[in-house]
Design a protein that fits this description.
- The chain is α+β, with helices and mostly antiparallel strands and 955 residues long.
- 22% of the residues lie in helices and 28% in strands.
- The strands form twelve sheets. Strands 23, 24, 28, 29, 30, 31, 34, 35, 36 and 37 form a ten-stranded mixed beta sheet that branches.
- Helix 5 packs antiparallel against helix 7, helix 10 packs parallel to helix 12 and helix 15 packs antiparallel against helix 16.
Length: 955
Amino acid sequence: MIKNQKLLSIIFLVFICVSCNKPSTSSSIVFDKLLVNTQQNPSTIESKQPLFSWTVDAEGNNKSQSAYHILVATSEENLNENDANVWNSDKVISDKSTFVKYQGKPLKALQHYFWKVKIWDEKGTASNWSAVQEFEMGLMDNKNWGDSKWITLNKDTRTSAYQFRDYKTGKMKNQPAKKVNGFAASYFRNELKIDKKIENAQVYICGLGYYELFLNGEKVGDHVLDPAPSNYNKQAYYVNYDITSALKSGKNAFGIILGNGFYGQNISWKRDPESEKDMAYGPPTVKCLVKLQYTDGTSSDFYTDEQWKEATGPIVFNNIYGGDTYDANFELGNWTSVGFNDTTWGNAKIASPKLRTISAQQMPAIKKLKELSPTRVFKGTDGEWIVDFGQNIAGWVKINVEEKKGQLIDIITTEALLTNGKDIFKGSTGGGANGMTQVYKYICKGNDLESWEPKFSYHGFRYAKIKGISRKPDADMIKAVLVATDIQETGSFSSSDALLNKMHDISKWTIVDNVHGIPEDCPHREKCGWLGDAHAFCEYALYNYDMYDFYKKYMEDIKTQMRPTKGHNNPELKFQVPTMIAPGKRTSTYAKIDWGVATMYLPWYNYKFYGDDEIVKDYYEPMKGLTDFYLNFKGENGIMQDGMGDWCPPLWDRRKNPSAMECDPIISANAYFYDVLGIMEKFAKMNNDAVYETKMKKEKEALLKAFNQQFLVDIPNTKHKWYQSQTATVQALQFNMVPASEIETVVNGLVHNIVEVKGGHHSTGIHGNRYIYTVLSKYGKADLAYQILTTPDFPSQTYVMNSGFTTWPERQFIWEEMEGPSNSLNHPMHSGFAAYFYESLGGIQSSTEKAGFKQFIVNPEFSGQISSTQVSVPTPFGSIKNNWTSEGGLLTMNLEVPFNTEAKIILDKKEFESLKINDTSFDAFKDKNQIVIADTTNILLGSGTYKIKYQKSSK
């Protein structure tokens, strides 16, 4: 008995020892998202060192990560600490949970990989292993396209009388319109016989021009207008689809329709004096590769070559600006199905396009996002039907009609009506600039109900005038289709003020309408990636949408747009400089400073919002070279003698009223450049470039001194100072250029001009409007910011909304005095101001020292007219949420801080003294929690959910 008791005691002690030595794990640490290159289980990774990220939900407050362990293997069976045959990071002591760089064996093209991660919290408690995740490598190298060839249309066999369109620009007033037809849409087909059981089948397709791929009578995928535009001679993009389940034993039919897109756009803008004379890169061409893996371990490829058959078909005209013409009398039948008789078809022509690199398209594809039904239908002055869809969108119309054979149906799409409301007003959609009126044309075949929608063009419109129909149109006959890059909305804002909420909605609509693989200026007249427009609305876009891959792709567009350019002061020097527009052959000269700074701002904003330094390192040398190019404009007064200007302020017209741009372009450009010199100083430090870091610091200090000497002036008959315009003054305050001793007089100078001179209105264009409301709020003038926005008089945002616009127009005009609203009515450069909703009203901004919201600032600044605001800000760590109410000066914030981050609550002395957290006095809360006090009165809070109350100071 005694022996048995001793034995039991020994066993118990051994169990206790083993239990003590076994690492503790916590089921309260739960993985939410697991990402590779910001994507869940991606299929075409091409980076040699992918980036791993994870978000975590954890119970309690002040929770953070202290270590991680990542495993990568070629099979799930090998995905353990002993057998991980690709990468076993072991335990890494680090709080990094975003953009962790792969450090394993070289990854192989087309290889499938599995991975998982575990982490340890701040107390050393381990999580369980995450669920198993996957990623697959892309082609990675041009050689992996194997024997696939580029094919293009060998012979244009169009005979439809409707293949031609009229081309006439505003400069051709006294000339007849020219008949144009552009490159023909091409139809390719081939069949594949499969006599083995398929394990896996992947298709890789690159269109130079837009394509649609079909398999056995069905379209493959849900992409449209694919792939994204680029500088096609340097960089093009392919798309991958898994077609394993779509293939069948025996014969399978593949079909491709190929349109012009921007690659084959050889009609519009070719006479633009600031661009190349031919906008097209050549006839559209396509390359396709199907990789088949069989269950017996063998594999084979099927690809485009000269054996593919070609034809033209019912799309008899397609131009990205003008639209599609579809002649249903030339339909080809079941040409994408097995057994189609293609004996009358020709053989495709092998092409050799000039192209440097083909990469996998990582950004979201363009898709059909939403359908809109008519909200009103009425007749115009000519008796034709006009449909109002209630919202200005980018996309196309889809129709269901039943008319006689040969009946032409014209659908003219416009953004606006005449001011009197009696008919459509073509404005920017009438082709005055690009020569192509927005029109969709459909020619009926006369067989019962016919359904159609375009494939290779998109328009900006709210209204559609329909000619050629025999009855009143309704929702069964016509709908509008929103078509845009499928960026995911991840942030949100709402407040107690309906006007501000409506501004937010309009600002979002204006952005969504203008993302089609690039950040556009407008979705109709130009469809161009103007650099100044791109950086104007970038931060607001980042607050609302997942833009990580979108802006990385656009930075490649800017880089590949660079060309050798002579220095201004030293023409013997050559610099690589982008043009005003990227990508494409429409260029509009070298990028002036205030436009070209997008080259530095986009990586900076991406870094600030996501915390990934890869974009900074990838584009550091191009950014450095461009900074030096702009320094070569330095005059004897220390000011860079270059600038485009504060685009589109109230009443401004470049030719008719240029003086309405009150800010000297040199001043606004140098304000931006000062900010960029500081950014480049940081970038140099991140790239261990001490010499350039020192240079940037010196140049920044010199420009600051020169800027204040040259531009800071007294305002006559007042005690105030300013920088000679609202825009320059706002920029100087935003970029911390104002001497500390002068801040009060400069703020008062800005207020004086707004209130006393402008009657409570802004006079800013896109440069000033981006920051004016944020700056006023920061310096205690939040009520004035609110007043400017919400006054119903011209030129406020409320005036624009009251004028009936559902997107922000390009110009700031007095609309009721015009025949119809001219210029673009859908310009996202004017959405930039709405970042104010998040950074001021919501009070959330990322720290620049701990970027990507690893640490973030919380400091709502708002008008007394606003009693509540709710914001959700997307971050790589999860969403920050701040829902606040204000009553009688008492601010109550319900704040959610994501795992592994910390919030810095900004408080002055009075606010700090009244602070309560979770309904407990600050001192009592501090005794029970880990609280860091920074800068005397600011506090740092770790992850968790908090109710924060304090008496908000009135500045």
